[in-house]
Each structure stands twice: as structure tokens, then as C-alpha cells.
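Table S5 (text form). Sequence records supplied for joint modeling of the three-component complex.
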Amino acid sequence: MIEQVLQTLPQVLIDGLALGAVYAIVALGYTMVYGILELINFAHGEIFMTGAFVGTAILLTFSGLGWMASMPAILALLLVLIVTSVATGLLGMGIERVAYRPLRNAPKLITLITAIGISFLLQDIVRFITELKNGNYILTGPSLFSKQIGVKASAISSVFNDASVKSSFFIVLILAVIMMVALDFFVNKTKWGMAMRAVAQDRETAALMTVNVNKVIALTFFIGSALGGATGVLFAVQYGTIDPYIGFILGLKAFTAAVLGGIGNIRGAMFGGIMIGLLEMFAAANLPVVSHGILGAEYKDVFAFAILIIVLIFKPEGLFGKVSVEKV
Amino acid sequence: MDVKNLLSTIQANKRLQAIIVGLYIVVTFASLYLAQKSVIAFLLLLASLLLLYFTSFSNRVKWLVGGLVLVVLLPLAASQGEAYQSYMEVATLVGIYIAMALGLNIVVGLAGLLDLGFVAFFALGSYTYGIFATSQANNFMPFGHYPLSGESFWVFIFIGCLVAALFGVLLGIPVLRVKGDYLAIVTLGFGEIIRIIFNNLDKPVNITNGAMGLASVKPPELFGIQFMYPSQFYYIVLIILIAVIFAVRRLEYSKIGRAWKAVRENEIAAQAMGIHLVRTKLMAFAVGASFSGMMGVVFAAKQTFVDPTSFTLVESITILVMVILGGMGSVPGVILGAAIVTILNLQVLTELTNWLNQLSLSGVIHVPDALSPAKMQRFIFGIILILFALYRPQGLLPAKNPVFDEKDLKDTDSNHPMNTGVHKGGTQHVHLDS
Amino acid sequence: MSILTVKNLTKQFGGLVANSNINMEVQQGSITAVIGPNGAGKTTFFNMVTGVYQPTSGEILLNNESIVGLKPHQVTKKGIARTFQNIRLFGAITVLENVMVGMHNHLQGGLFSTILNLPRVKKEEKEARREAYRLLEYVGLESFFNEEARNLPYGAQRKLEIARALATKPKVLLLDEPAAGMNPKETNELTKLIYNMREELDLTIILIEHDMKLVMEISEHIVVLDHGEKIAEGTPDEIRNNEKVIEAYLGKGAAATAS
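The corresponding C-alpha cell record, covering 1021 residues in total, follows.
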């Protein structure tokens, strides 16, 4: 049994990293919004999904227009990423303006309900637009970077099997790292980033220090949603086929990652994302083996939820968060 | 101005109200009776209950008239057309969902706990009956011969109730230690976990038959009569529903109900009043779950088929929409909300889709299949949730506080320490020498 | 007889020491005031006594029985009730029901007896309503009984918190800034109410207050906290002239002038 686990380890690590990168960036959206508004933005998973669809749609249009042949794929991808992130960024900002801002002083329950409503709304809007144009709500994008590259892990040790990697994996990973580093820089080294951190810590005082709180919150949503949307494009490129319901489960897992890393903590979210991605791939590959076929691969989702529940019960501040005491 | 005057005249005059309601019932009853298939007449007759709600008759009268409509008039009128069973099917499902919504109302509306995995208890009830009322249980039970006879159904209603309540507590224990914001996500996670487990519990021991589901669930049997038609299940559902409504009403205005509301309003203050937070919340979970469990058993018997696809997140959100639409914490509100949403789902959307299809066929307008109302369920629910959360969070029939009668409350015991001292502020207490 | 004894009570939040080695004895039937500048740790002290915070170290004895480690609802059962600095009413329910919530531990209605509407539950509820109304009359709020608690004027809300606390039938009543935001007439009524409660209901009262007129008039014993420590304790006269107290409130200059 251990041999089987070790054999698949290289592939698991690679798949896990790819998935983890996706979770990490989506987790950033959750953690930033929670840090600033103490709101779980249920709709964030759907922003990710919208990004995937917008990006795929644009790529398909490019293909249709014959542009793909005339430009390097990486250029097309970057173009699509920029357009999609701006689009989803604006979408996220719009949602905040229309649905969350009016409820800023309402009980949390009501805001959560609005978020669920938006989540459902987005799912269906994407579904019927896709169905209208495509006849079906499942969308397959043009294949980019689909060359398979072999990783000779067996050269390191005969314990490992060889793994194979789509070349898109490297693109996804590099772009993900760039996005995370850029965000980290922005939050920690720029004026607006500092404003974001200030509002997250103490909204009233930040306002007294002439920080335009509404603008900062709008910016937070823009950045989080733009990143989420961009990740959606990367996801579509990596996995090829998408449907309007991928945002929900993925959003839940990304949220788990945010909680694991310590909600409100940006670096923690990145770490949490990678961890969850690795753990999930590990579970998918090995649960059937370890349990001798009792636990099927579908249990990997249960695995992720179980982590969420355990963390929230025993260490709700996550691995890197601070314990908060309620003032009575 | 005219409408307001009219309304206030009607409000003041009970005889007028009686005439209006009576007339309305007679008209809708007649139209339903005479029409071969009229969804509208059916819904309008059902709506007479709403009309009844707004009258100023005593509760006893309202219950009597409502009972008359539901037990006698509706089935009688519906039975004359060819659509009898489909009407009763809708009515039965409405009843099932009302009970579940009342359960969620206790958890969300009264105790303030946002549970997004509520359908899990419904699933538990269904599977509890389903497993033992089909040959499924032979796979793992060391004793007994399955399926059990249909007569066991009646006992299983209670068993389903208890199993669901038990799981409500088991789920609640870990879940309630989580901070308020996260409760929603954790319950959602649990709901999904249970669905996935049911979907995969066909190995190593085949307990639920996985994705294939359980077929040929034994119909209930009583004195040799088998219950196979919606028109029969209608009465079972009606009886359980009435019991549920009674239970909820009593709990609402009791020590337990007040404890729930106190926990919802201000947990810290509730603790300071001596309320055991965890125990109170667990009770909310258990009671809410038990309603779903009972209806789950009925559902399994009615559909004669149980599979995991009936118990997804969409169902949990559907029940939530019912509670929000109707009014969190409001029993009449939630009943109305459940009725509206179920009828929307089952009748209105399908009828609308058919109608639009017909229009398309005859070339009047062309509505693409993607936009067909039956498929737009999530869109509609999303809009309802957003609009109500933003503009009417108290729902259609907001929760009302009890109104006490001052006469009931004044005490005349002159030996009570508070009555013998000197009072400050407000009115002087009057001593009555008895 | 000392009803509440506090020994070396300390509370630390990470690096911040909110209460440091507080020692105090409260006599049964007395009216004690806990005063001090903002941030002195007064509410933290209340929170520890009522079980909301667990002390970092130290002892709290009620009738010589340790109550450290008890949860808030257990502390209430033992006979300590409180009001809150920031009003914590059950806003959406009626004033009468707010008071009835306080009776929670004295009502027997269980799940099944409630659902079955057994006669003893009906009787109990009726009696509870009357008792709640009596309490409302006692504090002067009976005209509001059907009103939603959140619609009450500010002064009335404070009184409701007291009525609600009384409903728990406590032996010790902790009032956290009960006169905050009250005008002189309301403060007068409050003063009389506090005296009445002590006499008629056999209570021991401890209050946190900033209104010095009220404190000096009503307290028999005053404890002064500053920066988490007890800096003085004594009768109102003793405290009025205590240098350390003056310094804590008004600064060193004022203390020098006073002496």
C-alpha cells in the first residue's frame, strides 16, 4: 500500500500544486472581503466561474475569428486574462455596491442571504446565456498549451512513478505566483494597500484618518474579484471543460483554504490554498487504495469539508490567524 | 381614498367579512367542481385560506372554516375533474414543504441559526423508511424479513421523527461551537457530506444502494387498505401538518420559544438570564429536524422511490427561500411562503413553460428553450432572496409579537413584597382590600 | 457577612493586564460602588464575576463557594444577576417577554409538556406573566408591557434591563453604569429604586458608575480601580478625600491642590 502511495506521489504533487494555486487565489478573494467587512462572500465562487466562462468565450471567439493562429498562444492568454479580470473586477464591485453596501448595518444573517441569492442568480445567468449561444450549458474551450510533458520522477528514485504534466501547468503556476506576489506587494507596500489593512482593522478610525472607506471596500472587491476571475480563466485553460456549477464546490474549498490559513490573513490564504489542493489530490489518489475500495473518490469532497469543520471547531483562527475575543 | 375606506369598513364589519369569504369560497368551489382542469380555480380555492387569515374572526372559527375547506371542500371539488390526482399531488407536496419550512423556521427564524444543510434531515427520514420498506435492509440486518409490511409505516413516522431529531443533536454538537458567521458554511458542508455519503453507501455494506436509489418502497397500509394515490396521502400529510402547526404555536410562546428568541436577539444577554446556549440551540435543531424527518418518511412512501438526487443543496435553499419569503419567525408567513414557492415550482413554472411553448409553436413569440421558466428556478430564487433581503427582510407576513391583555396580568395579592413597598416612577399601584 | 469575596483576581489578555490582583469583600445587603477612570478594568471585573471571562488567576467566592470556572448561565443560577454597560435587550420581543426570559430558570416547562399544553404549563405561564407584570410595575414600566423592547426610550430600556435581571431572583445584583445617559429626574428615580431593591428584595447591590453624585449618595462602600489595580477602598467620605483617587481622575496637579 505504501508503495502505491509513493508511486503516485509525483503526479499527486503536480496535480495538487496546480489545483492548490487555483484555490489559493480564489481564497484570497474570500479572505480579503472577510477581513474588511466580516462577510463571507458566498458569491465569490460564482465570480470565479464567471471569469472562466468569459475567458473561454473570448478564446472561442478568437478561435472563430482565426486570430489564434496568428498570435502566440501566450499573448492571447494574457489578453484574455486582462480583459476578463477587469470584467469580473467590475462585476464584483457592482455586486458590492448594489447588494452589500445597503446592508452594511443590517444583521449578518440578511447579508448572507443576499450573497446566496447573488450566487444562485449568477449561476443561472451564466447557464442560460451559455445555453442560448451553445445549446448546452457545458462549455469546452479551445485547447491551449495542451502538450503533455513527461516528468521523469523515476529518475530521482525508483519508488516514484513518472508523472505527466500538461504544459499549461507551468503557465498556470507562473501566473498564479505572479498574481500572489503582486497582491502581497500591493497590500504591504503601497498606500492603498495600507488603507485596506487599516479599514480591515478598524473601519471607524480609518474613516477618521480621512480614508475613504467606501472606495477602499470597492477596491478590495475589485481586486479580489479580478483575481478570482483571472483564476477562472486559468482553470478553464488547465481543465478544458467548464459548467456553471463549478464555482460552488470550488468556492467552498477555497473558503476552507482561507479559514485554514487564518481568515483575513492574505499569506495564510495562499498557504491554505496550496495545502488544500495537495491534500485533495492526495485523498483522490489514495482514499480508494487505503480503504480498499470502500471510500470512493467522491469522498475527496467530504475530505475537504471535514477539514473545514474540524478547523472551525478546534482552531477557528486558522494556522496563522489571531484569536479574537468578543468585547462584552 | 375609496379603497382605504372600503377596507376599513370591511375590517369593522364581521358580517360583511363572513359574506365576502363565504361567497369567495362558494364561487371558487363551484368553478373547481365544474371545470375539467383548472389550475387557477384550484389555487384560488386554496387562497381562500389566506383570505380567512386576514379576517377578524376568532381563531376557533378560522380553524373550523379552514378545516372545512381543506378536509372536505377542496378534495371534493378537485375530484370531479380528470386532474384530481395532480391537484392532490400538489396539495400534498405543499403540505410536506410547509412542515419542513416550519422546521427550518424554528432554527433560522426563532433561534437565528442559519442552517444551509437542512434537507439532510428530510433525507434521513426518507432513507430510514426506504431502507426498511424495501428489500434493502436484507443486506445488512441480521434479523427480520424485509420489506416490512405497509402497516409499519405508521410506526416509522415516529421513528423517522426520532432519528432526525437525534441527528439534529449529533450534527448540532460540533456545529454549534463554531462562530456565528461560519455556522452557515459548516451546515452547508454537513448537508453535502450527508448527501455524498448516501450516494456512496453501497460499499462495503450496501445500506443505501448508492446512486441507484431504493425502489418499490412499500406503500402504507391500514386495515387492508393500501395508500397509493396522492389523494390518500393528502390526508396523512394534513394530519401530521396540523400536529406540527399546533406544536410550533405552543413552543413559540413558551419558555422554550422565548429562550430561542433570546438567543437569537442577544446571546450574551441570554446567557446572563440563565439560558444554556448549547442546549437551547440543540433543541432548536432537534425539533426542526424532527418535522423534516417525519415528512421524509411520508415522502418516501408516496414517491415509492428514494435516491440522493432529491436531497441536494438546491432543496435546502428552496426551503430557506420559503422561510425568507414568508417571514422569518412567523408561522403564518412561513406557511404562505412554503405554499407560494412549492406552487411556483410545481405548477406555475411548468404551466408558464407550457404556455410559452404553445405561443412559440403558434409563432406568436419565440422563447428559446434556455430561458424556459421551468429551468429558471435558480434565477427566480436568487431574485427573491436578494429583493426580500434588501427591501423586505421581515417577509410577506412578518412575525408578530403576542399581545397580552392587561386585565390578565394585574395581580391583587397585597402580601407580595413588591405590593407593600413604596413605588417610584409610573403609576401608583392600587391596593385592593379583599 | 461577606456574600461575595474576591481574592487576587487577575485577568490578562495576551500582553494586556486588565485586572491585577483585585481583592474585595462585599457584605450581604450592602450597596457597593466600583469606580475608576475609563479603561480601569471595571467591566472586566464584572465579566469575571459573572463568568463571561475566565480569570487568569485568583478566586471568586459566593457565599464561600467558588464560582470560578462556571459558565455565565450557571453563575446566574447561583444567584448573581447583571445589567450591561451597552444595553443588551432582546429588541424584537415585547417588554413583558423580556422580563419573562429572566424567569427561565424558575420555570419548569419542558419540551413535551409544552407541546401537549399540559395544565401545569398553562398555569405556570400565567403566573409568570403576572410576576413579570409586577416587576414592570416595580420599576415603573408597566405601561410599555406590549411594546417591542427596541422601541423604548433610552431611560426605559435601562430600567427594563434591571427588571429583567430581577426576574432571575438574584441574591447579588451587578449594575453596569445604570445611570449612563440619564437626566437628573431619571437618576433620582434610579436612586430610589436601588434603595428599594436592597430593602424589599433582600439584595446585595454592586454598581459600576461614573455619576459621582449618585455614587456618593447611595454607596456604603466604594472600591476604586485604576489601570487594573485597586487603588483605594472605603466610605464615600474617605474616597472623596483620597489623594490617589483624585490623582487617578484628575491628574497629579489636582491632587496637589486638594491636599
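Note: Residues 91 and 135 of chain C are 18 Å apart (CA to CA).
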